[in-house]
Task: structure prediction
Amino acid sequence: MLHVKNLTASIGGTPILKGLDLDVGDGEVHAIMGPNGSGKSTFAHTLAGRDGYEVGGTVTLDAADLLVMTPEARAAAGVFIGFQYPVEIPGVNNMYFLRTALNSVRRARGETEIGARDFLAIAYEAMDLVEMKRDFLNRAVNAGFSGGEKKRNEILQMAVMQPRLAVLDETDSGLDIDALRVVASGVNALRGPERSMIVITHYQRLLEYIKPDFVHVLVDGRIVESGDHTLALRLEDEGYADFVNHELDHVPGRPMSGAPT
Amino acid sequence: MTSATTAALASEVSPEAQLERIAAIGYPTKRDETWRYAPHAVLSRLSFGPAGAIDGGMLSEIDAQIPALDGPRIVVVNGVVDEARSDITGLPLGLDLSTPVPGAGGAADRIAAHPDSGVEPVADAFVALNVAFSGDGVSVHVAAGQHLDPPIHIVMVSTPAGTHNTSCSKLAIQIDAGGSATVVETKLGAGSEFGGANTRTIISMGDHATLEHIVVQDVPSTQVHLSRTEVTQGVGSELRARLFNLGATYGRLAYDVHLAGEGARADLSGLYFGSGDQTLDQQISVIHAAQNCTSRQAFRGVLDDGSTGVFNGAIEVRPGADGTDAEQSNDNLLLSNRAAANTQPRLEILADDVACKHGATVGQLDEEAMYYLRTRGIAVDEARRLLINGFADQAVHDVGIEVLRTWITQRLGHDDE
Result:
C-alpha cells in the first residue's frame, strides 16, 4: 500500500532523512520510534507534503506518486497526519472546519458533498469515539484547547476523514494517562483492513495501548532496526544509546560527535 | 433644502458663514494628524453645494443592495429624503422618526437646536461643509423608558450627478433617559461617476439609555465617503457601536464618543476590509470625562492588493475621571506585500486610578495554519478564505442582527453559516 524507497529530506542543505525505506501493507500498524532529532517528525511531514524540504527518493500510496502532490491532494489520496502540535485557528468554527475538510476531499474524489444535517450525525459518531462533548463543535479550531483536547480533536478529524493512511506524530506527547487511554481507544476503533497507520513515538508507553504489527527504530535519518512489538519493549529497557552508537560506528567518515541529543 | 428648513437652520448654518469659516481654517492637509493618510489630491476634486433631488434613473441598482431589515426605514439620496423608498408607517409607540416638514418644526429644528454639549467643536472644513450643505436632516427620537426592538434603518445613498459631485447629509439620534434602540446606518452609492458623500451623525444618550449603532459603509470604489459621528453619553448609558468600513476609494469613519455621565459604557468595534487601491481610515476618539466609565475599542483590518488601512485611536481621560477602565486593540491582516496598515494609539491620561491598555498587531496569514488546513484536504484558496473569514468574523460576530450579519458576510465574499 505505502512504499517508501530511499527517502531523503533536507532543510537548507542540512540532511535530515538520509535514505529511509519502509513498506506498509493494508491494515498494518507500524510504530516508528527514535531519539529526539532522529527525523521522526520530518518523516511525517514529508509524507504530508509540508513546504520547505528538499525531498528525494520515492513514496507511493496505492501506486500513486505522493511526492509530486500538494498537501490537499495527498489528503484526497487518503493521507492523514495527526500533528504533534495541532494549530490553533481562532475564528474558524470546528464544525465548519470539519465539514469543509470532509467535503473538500469528497469533491476532489468526485463524490457528492455532505449537507450540514447529515454531517452532524457523522460528527457525533466521531465525537463519541473520543469522548468529546457536543459543544466542542461550536468552538474555534483548537483555540484555547488543552493539550489533551487538541490531541482528541486530531483523532476526531481522523475519524471524520476516514483516511487510507494515518500518520500520527507523537500523538502521546503531553497527554496524561486518561487522555492517552481515550486517544488510544479512538485510534484502535479506527483500525481496519482498509486503513494503515504509522504511529510515531518517542516512548514505548503509547504502544501498550496501540499494539503495532511492526516496530522500526529511526536513528539519524535511517531505519536501523525493525521487528515486532517486542522491539519496543527492548528499547524501553535499554534506551536508544545502543542503536545510536551502533549506527554511527557503521557510517564511514562520520565522527562520533554527530550523535543526536 | 426648502426655504422653511433653511430658515430653521439659519442661525447656525448659513452656507456663507460656513464658507467663511472654511476660508479661515483651510482644508485639512497631511500635516493634520487625523488626515495624514487621506488622499488629499482626490479630496481636492470633491465639489459641494446645496442638496437637490435627482431623477431616479440609477437608483434601481440601489434597491437590491439595501439590507432587508425589519423595522422602519428612511432612505436619503444625495441629502434628500426619498419617500418612495422609505417606510415610516406604523411606528411603535415612543419612536419619533422624522424628516423635515416645512414649518412644522420637525427634524430640522431638532438638529439645529441640538446642543453639541460636551463634544469639542471640530475645526475641520468638511464638518463646516456638512453644516452648510446637509440637506434634509433625519431625526430619530426615542422617548424616555421606551425599548424599541426592530432596528431603525437609515440608508444614505450617494449618486454623483449634477452641478457638484458630493452630497452632505445629517442624522440626529436622541435616546431619552432609560430608552433603548438599535439604529443601522447603511451608506451606499450608485453610478460610476467620481464623487462622494460627507455625512454627520449626532447622538445624544440620556441617563441609562442604551443604543446599538451599526454603520456599514459600502459605496462604489469610484467614490469618497466621509462619515463623522459625535456621541454624548449620560449617566450609566451604554453604547455599542459596530463600524464596517468596506467601500469607497477613500472611506473614512470618524467616531467621537464623549462619556459625560458617571458609569457610562462605550463598546466600539469594527472591521475594515480593503482591496485594490482603497484607503480605509478609522479615526476613533473616546473621551472619559466622568468617573467610573468603561470603554473598549476593538478594530480589525484585512488589507489586500495595494490597499491601506488606518487606525488612529484616541483615549483621553480628563482630570477627575477616576475609575476609568479603557482598552483599545487594533489587529491587521495583510494579504499582499503592497498593502499597508498604519496604526496609532493616542493616549492622554490626566486622572488617577485609571486602567488603560492598548495593543496593535500587523501580520500575515499564518503559514502553519495554512499547512494544517491543507493537510485536511482544503485547497489553498479555500484555506485562505477560511483564515481571512475567521479573522474578520470576530468583528462580524458582534453584530446582533442576523440579516445584517449575513449581508456583511456575503459582502466579504463568503456566504456560509
